[in-house]
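QA checklist item 7 of 12: single-chain prediction sanity check.
[x] sequence parsed
[x] length recorded as 108
[x] structure emitted
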Amino acid sequence: MAASSKATVVLKAVKKIAIQFSPFESNVRSTREFLALVGSEKARSTNMNCEVVTTVKHDKSEPVIDITYLDGDRLVMKGAKLTSREMLSAFQSQCTAKDPQAKNAAKK
């Protein structure tokens, strides 16, 4: 897996994560790795109300990750040209910015 398995995914500030991809395309690896990280039991336990929805398509469409935060903001990432590490970094920086407790922990 390209993304660090030691990365801690915290879903406190997240309302919904919608992931869609065509599994037989060559450019979906990073999207599937991101799905494995946010869909893990450990990550899901940080916010039991966070909805993770996966849509498997067979139309050769580009892999897309659409994240909706509790405050209504959205982060849309097109996974064809991003690595799972880049997606995770963008996701975590947004989560840290939206979670006051995470901001305080990062300062220490």
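[x] summary fact logged: Strands lie at 14-21, 51-56, 64-69, 74-78.
[ ] second reviewer sign-off
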